[in-house]
Amino acid sequence: MDYVILGAGGTGACIGGFLAAAGKDVTLIARGKHLQALKENGLILHSDKKGETHLPDIKVMSTEEYKSKADVIFVSVKGYSIDEIVPFLKKVSDRHTIIIPILNIFGTGKQLAEKLPGKNVLEGCIYIVAWVSAPGEVTQRSDIFRVVYGTRGETALRPKLEKIAADLLAAGIAPVVSQNIAADTYRKFTFVSPMAAAGAYYDITAGKMQQDGVERDTFIALVDEAIKVGQAMGLEVDDGLREKNLAILAALTSETTASMQKDLKKGGNSEIDGLVFEVVRMAEKVGISVPWYSKIAEKFNFKK
């Protein structure tokens, strides 16, 4: 199968780079200085899992240059870019194509599916710490690298999903073909959303949340609020997620920050609407109080 990685930032480039290093047919879709550097020098991975890896011949294109129909498309863009990628996904997919969004924001697959009728749009998420450290270069930290994906109901796509899992596993990526993708993606959300929210609120790295103190207490309170919202929505999420999320937090390097926090500091677009404000909206719909999310949303000028 051939793989297209739409969005060759930290997460996308790692999926594409690991697959390409394992001999899979991969095309990265990138833009700007990153695209130019990838074309000129290939992809350089500084990876805790794979070590120093240079892929000088990895295929890299812009959305305008790619004209084929892909077997599998991993969508790894920011949540605020969803509308602008729809025309590209329509162009490069057919009824055989599997589209797997791995964004941080809960429910992205369903949102995309509504814009792409007749396409095989799954739900997915990724556990990884990775970022673009320079144009054409990506850094991946810690041993965490897991991709979770699945359909929103019964499917005849299972054999293809298992083939994707086999390719990911061969590349050194832990795959999970989910039987309950709504719950599984929300479980990821109960980590990444609180970490982004607390990190942005206090302007801190993961290290502060790893130590006892108000910052860690806030992270825990946000996790608990997110769990309660998910439970009220009827999702299979349990209170044990708190300890699991604390274990994930403990595994991060102390200097780690969420991408939303990085984007807010740059002053441009960020995923705060989907990662923080949307929790307040979801809570209101199901009648749950989320005081910490509300407080943080207010600080960042939340408008309903």
UniProtKB/TrEMBL annotation:
Report any one BP term from Gene Ontology: pantothenate biosynthetic process
Q: Pfam families per the record?
A: ApbA, ApbA_C
What GO MF annotations does this protein's record show? 2-dehydropantoate 2-reductase activity
Q: In which pathway does it act?
A: Cofactor biosynthesis; (R)-pantothenate biosynthesis; (R)-pantoate from 3-methyl-2-oxobutanoate: step 2/2
Known catalysed reaction(s)? (R)-pantoate + NADP(+) = 2-dehydropantoate + NADPH + H(+)
Q: Quick one: a GO cellular component term? A: cytoplasm
- Protein's UniProt keywords contain NADP: yes
User: Keyword set for this entry?
Assistant: NADP, Oxidoreductase, Pantothenate biosynthesis
What's this protein's function? Catalyzes the NADPH-dependent reduction of ketopantoate into pantoic acid.
Protein name as catalogued: 2-dehydropantoate 2-reductase
Question: Native species of this protein?
Answer: Pectinatus brassicae
